[in-house]
Design goal:
The chain is of the alpha/beta class. It has eleven helices and 15 strands.
Amino acid sequence: MTRIAIVATGGTIASEATDAGVVATKTAAQLVERAGLDDIEIETVDLMTVGSYRLTLGHLRQISDAVGALLTRSTERVDGVVITHGTDTMEETAILLDLVHDDPRPVVLTGAQRAGDNADGDGPGNLTDAVRVAATPTARDRGVMIVFAGQIIPARGARKIHTTALDAFRSVVSPSSGKVTNGQVCFGPTAPRPDPLPRPDAGFDDTRVDLVDVYPGADDALLRAAAACGAAGIVLAGTGIGNGNPAIVEAAADLVDDGLALVLSTRVPAGPVRGVYGNGGGADLVGVGVPPVSGLPATQARILLALLLSTGRTRDQPLAHLIETYADVSPNRASNSDVSTDIHTTLIHDNELPNTKED
């Protein structure tokens, strides 16, 4: 019989209403009770019970360690791992796990938009689908995936693109990897992935990488403040294709000269990041040594940068080369019109709005 480990970390899927709001309380075994998985051998691991809005890099490392321990043990081997997780920061945990995943067996994250005590909750169905995917032989060699509302989404490029809709996740760099329909798993093409990086160690926990947005009237204050507060790296989410302004460019040049790892992303949901515009635009930022990141959204680029810094990779190789190797391996975000159209349609046509707090 196929054996799947379910690692519970908290989130809305494990939550119930209390006088203090919706709070994560349920164990992995309690989640499995409603999932209908009698034909699969399930091992449960209660790692933490935390809303994902509270997670730190240390929590993400603990999840990575737990997955690594399950996949490397020599007895009671599992055929795949499912992680129940809050939706707010699922995309960050997913990319960390994918960057270090060095095993053919699948790792699948899932969660819910409706609390676990909701009679019409989406958690049991999502968990069932996630286990079905993890137990499917064709899921091997596909890395880490998010399974949500019947969609199979590669970890690379995954974003939560709606606060309350049940189908809250999309990839902003490639089409979905497949679907789960009535318990049947159907896969599409395999998304490209780089060779795995080493798993994070304790140094990852305290590696500060800040995310700074550009907006009309933005000055250099936030960039310089992040550096003054001890940031080892910064992801700059520029406007449009990856633009700043003259003050941003001047600050970026100073920070790069001081040895800070600075990369350029965009606040736009989909599309490439390129150095095209001058007079404070992306061309100037690239010109002062800020490499553009197109293959990962800003939230995931931050996790990659923290991992590269904490493992010392940025001391040995140029940052631009590392970004090209570990971030920009996915299909070009601009060339896939289906991705952009899908995201746009989701944003302008709200789905049913569940009555629950987010995680």
